[in-house]
Design a protein that fits this description.
seven-stranded antiparallel sheet; alpha+beta; four-stranded antiparallel sheet; 21 helices; 686 residues; elongated; 13% strand; 19 strands
Length: 686
Amino acid sequence: MSVRLSAFLVLLVEAIAFAYFTGDHLVPAFFALTALLGALRNRRWIAGPKARIAWILFLGLLIAASPLVSPYQRPTPSGIFQYPALAHGVGLYLLAFQALQIFIDPRYPTAPPQWLRQFWGLRGAFPCYGIGVFIAAGDMNIDRREHVYFLAACAFHLAATWLYMGLRTRPVDSAAWDQSRWRRTRFQLTLLVLSLSVGTALSFVVLNYGNLVDRILSNMLINPNLGSTMGFSSSSGLDSIRAIRGNSANAISLRVYGEGPPGYLRALVYDSYDKGRWQRNAPRFELRAPDPGDTRAPKPAPAQTLYSVRPTDAPSLKTHEIWSVMTLADQIFAPMDTAYVSCTGDGLLRDSYYALLPRNSVPAQPYTVYTDNAPANEPPDAIVRNNLLQLSNEVDGEVRDFARGLIGDATGMEAADRVVQYFRQNYTYQFGIQVPPGQKPLNYFLLQRPPAHCEYFATATAILLRIAGIPTRYATGFVCASKHPYGGYWIARNKDAHAWVEAWIDGQGWVTLEATPESGVPQPEVLSRWGLLQDYAQHQAHLLRTTLRSAGLFAMLAEVPRTLKAFLRPALYLTAIVAMLLLLRQFAPVTWRRLRQPPTRATATSHAGLHALLAQQDKALARHGLVRRHNETLHAFAGRLETAALPSASRAAAWYRHYATLRYTGAPYSDALSRLQESLWRESAP
């Protein structure tokens, strides 16, 4: 067992390193747990050549299905593995193959060549597969600050390998293995050279044929639709948000820590509509740090820079810390009334509509937005106002006549309410719409009133209000209203992507208008506790990793107690379920057997009554010196009664036999107790 435990230690170091550097925690943990079970078993499962091939193929299917259980979001590619899908798939497969070798005992019907035996089993090249695991983990997306941790993991792996090789001295069989030190050393050196040679050859293949190989592995191993990967760009069509909502709808896109629901978190704002698409034409400005005399400016988070977005007079600010998935690292999601932003990176930009954007693409890092819950009252200047009233040639006379008939002479908020209520009362929401060929999308939607999704309602609202002289802009982002049951943070999933309208109302400022029917607006939802437990565990691990990268090892260690406390409640739930399963496993078979057994007559009658009759009969015979011993069966006592010199002793013996038949064989007596009562032996019995 010592060899298996040392092999498990080698695999554990590999699994921890792979989980840390790739962010995929569940699948490596599963393989590590499998290896631990194999290391603790006294006997391993026996597998012949055919069984081993079947297991190897099964591992491939298991790795291919792993994204369904543990979604993996691909980081930025780097290193010899030009595409992360290839590195991720290779690393997981090598981990699984090592766990299989710990769990399964290979048996050979015939003695294979000695060199072939060394590539399967714990007596062979087991640690060499770890080289591939570390290459895969190291080439995923390691930050320069993480190189020291990667080197430390390599050192731990080397130490574990040294321990494993020292314990692995017992020969496979005395005929095929020389126990001399030189033979063992030569074999180890041969494996090392072979591993380096194979690694170099594989690197050459990947560099020259990486595109082809990765396309194959990407389709097999990684779900390309994980996370929000499209829809937030300089141009937004009438189906862009619908594509996000239908793309892994339950995948979490944003996690927000804050006191209350963040609500509308906009990513981009558009001002020009033509031919079914919205464009952004607003200039961008560089945000700067608050003035030194700004007493309202909050203190930025560690390793972050604070930027002032717009002036505010609010006495207090509302704080939301936002964590976005890796595929949304190029976006800053923030409410319209954001006053300050604290984030990492080398700068932050805003446009004329106060939509925020990083200067350069950076890895996904948390950022904090500070809002004042006050309307954005900065009126648009003449140029911006003109842009927000522009109408393309697509807006023809039919649409203009429709707007005048709907809005009439109403202005300001009254006009906006008329448009919003019209859509909410006369339309229905539907995920998707089919516009007939040759039809203009806007005309078809307004005049034919088909069911549609949020982009059509927002676009129509913006255009109708522009016709009425109200400046409007089209915004896209997420509506974040659901709370995670474990972490206490708010989440937005792909299904919560949305489009809405922001209108300038004289005397009120910028107002968010929601014209989509209620069934199409993301609502607060009671989330499945067990379905989100895995996400919660992965996010807590990501928190520790981010703290380590941004603030160092000691800051991460200071966060460990908080993380353990956060895991306490989910752990109690999980412990309760495991306890229930164990109790069910313990008592269910017994209960099932009892239910399947036919009821006996003894169970149909009163056990207490039967025992009382037996005690009464024993007492009557004991007065004549006939005492039933405690280890004497009823039939044995009946046989002894037949030889006793006592009147009607045979009748008493028959009573004991009837009692035994009723008690233990379930004889079909309809009134058993009364019959036994009547046939009790008495001294006066004939």
